[in-house]
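Cross-check.
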Amino acid sequence: MTALLLQDLFHVPIFDASGLTELLLRTLLNLVFITALVRGVYYRFSPNREFAFTYFLFNILIFFICFLMSGVNINMGFGFGLFAIFGILRYRTASLSIKEMTYLLAVIVLAVLNSVSSQDISLVEQIVMSTFVVIFVYVMEKTWYQVREGMREVNYEKIELIKPEQRQALIADLESRLGVKIRRFEINEIDFLNDSARIMVYYEMNS
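Predicted model, tokenized:
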């Protein structure tokens, strides 16, 4: 009786065994693939392991949102509002490299693949696509990017060396200070008031 009253009050079913079973199975499936990607591939090849928390949380949140959107009818206003939130979402932290952003895209894709249910796509096809994503990333890391690359942000005071013609002198000075072999660098910010710059340095890591 109480369940019926609550159902009438909130206009939603109190318990749906089939829906709950599908949610739990798809959540487990998603966790298997995101763990394989982040813990098995990213965490193994990348030194920036603090992003692992972000990737896991991003994946889980997007998974539940996509599962919700695929299972209910959402009006257009709510849909536009939801994607507007994603549009203004920004991390006020150090800028991510292209590789980190690519991993972020991969965890989002896995969340979408494992959350959406459709009569046109079987569960086996979804599993095959998710497996392919994880394996492909692993093969790329293992074969094409054998040299492990570290990343470090440096506050640099010799602002006269940030000029293009002083590139080699800047690299030599950074290598001397950091004690690493620099592969490339990016100048993120220049502060002429304090005569300093923020430089993202990418260097070779010893295996």
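Strands lie at 149-156, 182-191, 196-204. Residues 17-45 form the longest helix (29 residues). Passed to J.P. for a second look.
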